[in-house]
Amino acid sequence: MLKQLLLVIAIGFCITIGCSDDETPPTDNNWPAIVNADGSGDFPTIQSAINAAVDGDTVMLAAGTFTGAGNRYIDYIGKSITVMAEPGGRGEVIIDCEGEASGFAFHTDEPSSARLEGVTIMRAAGSFGAAILCTNNASPSISNCKFIDCESSSEGGAMHLSGRCKSVITRCRFSANRSLSDGGAIYISLSSPEFIACTFDLNLALEGGAILAQSATVRIVGCTITQNAPDGVSCWGTTTLTVANTIIVENFGDALACFDDCATSFSCSDIWGNTEGNWDGCLADQADLRNNFSADPLFCDRAEGDFSLVAISPCAEAEGGCGTVGAWPVACGK
C-alpha cells in the first residue's frame, strides 16, 4: 500500500510541476522494460531505463540504431541488471557512438549477474576501453555482442579491463578496433577475465594487436584470433595465460609475444601462418604438447570474414579428443 501511495504522490508531483521523460516514476509493469531507438517505449534512452531499474530487472532494446545522449557512455551504476537485445527482434540492435563517446562503463563493483547481451557497439571512442570499461572489482557477463570500428586513444581499442575486473566474455566478435597504445581490441591489467568462443580479427595497436595482458590472469577458450597487428596476443609482466582449443593464425607478427615473466599453458590449439613466428619463443616447448598443432584451419571465406570451418579442416575434429578448435563450427564443404 505504501508503494502505491508513494507512486500516486510522485505522479501528482509531476503533473503539478512537470517532469522530464527521464524522471518518469517506474511502475511494476515497466519490467522488463522496452526501449526503442526512436525514444519511444517505456523509457526514452537506455541510461534512463538503467537509472530506474533495480537489481534483477531487465532492459530490452528493440531492433534499431541507438545514438545520442543517454545511448552512449552508459553506466550500470553498480546494478545487477540485464541489458539485452529484445528476443525475436526484427533486426540488429546497434549502439552507434558516432565517434563521440564511449559505450558502457562497469566501474562500481557490478557482479556477474550484471549482463550485456546481443548488441553491437560501433564507432565508440574513449581513452580507456572505447566500448567497455571494466574496473573497480566489476565482473559483468558479456555475451553475443559485436565490437566494431571502436578506437581508444590509450589502452584497449574495444575493452579496458583493469582493477580486478573478472568479466566473462562469451561468443563476442571484435573486428577492426584500434588502440593508439596497447591492445587493439582488449587491454587487461591486474584482472582475471575469461574469453570463450570469441573472434578477434583486423584489430590494430602499437602493442598487442588483439589482446595485451599485463600482470593479469587470462583464460582464452575456443576463440579465433586472426589478421591482427602487431601480433595476436601480447603477454607482459607476471601474467598467467591459459589457452585451449583456440586458433591463432595469420596475424602480422608473432602468434604470442612474451615479455618479462609471462607464464603460458596452451592445449588443443592451432598456431599457423603468423608472419614472425608460430610455435617459437615462449611457446617453443609447447608445440608438441597437449595436442597442439600447426596447420591451415581452412576457413570458409577468410576474405569476407567468414571464419567458420570447411568440413575437412584439421580444426573441425582435432586429434587427441580435442573436438572443435576455434570459435566457429563447420559450415561449408560438407
Outline of this structure?
The chain is mainly beta.
Name the strands of the widest sheet in spatial order. Answer: 1-2-5-8-12-16-20-23-26-29
What's the count of strands?
33
Strand content: 25-35%
Secondary-structure content class:
mainly beta
Summarize model confidence as the mean pLDDT.
92
Largest sheet: 10 strands, parallel
Q: Helicity, in percent?
A: under 10%
Provide the CATH topology: Pectate Lyase C-like
Number of domains: 1
Shape: globular
Provide a count of the helices: 2
CATH architecture type:
3 Solenoid
Can you walk through the features of this model?
The protein is mainly beta and 334 residues long. The strands form five sheets. A ten-stranded parallel sheet has the order 1-2-5-8-12-16-20-23-26-29, covered by helices on one side. Strands 3-6-9-13-17-21-24-27-30 form a nine-stranded parallel sheet, with no helix packed on it. The longest helix is centred in the N-terminal third of the chain and has 16 residues, at 2-17. The chain starts with a helix and ends with a strand. The protein has a single domain (97-332), classed as Pectate Lyase C-like (3 Solenoid). It has helices spanning 2-17, 46-52; strands spanning 33-35, 58-61, 64-66, 74-75, 82-85, 93-96, 104-106, 115-117, 120-122, 125-126, 132-134, 141-143, 146-148, 151-152, 159-161, 168-170, 173-175, 178-179, 186-189, 194-196, 199-201, 211-214, 217-221, 224-226, 233-236, 240-244, 247-249, 256-258, 263-267, 270-272, 299-301, 306-310, 330-332. It is globular, with a radius of gyration of 21 Å.
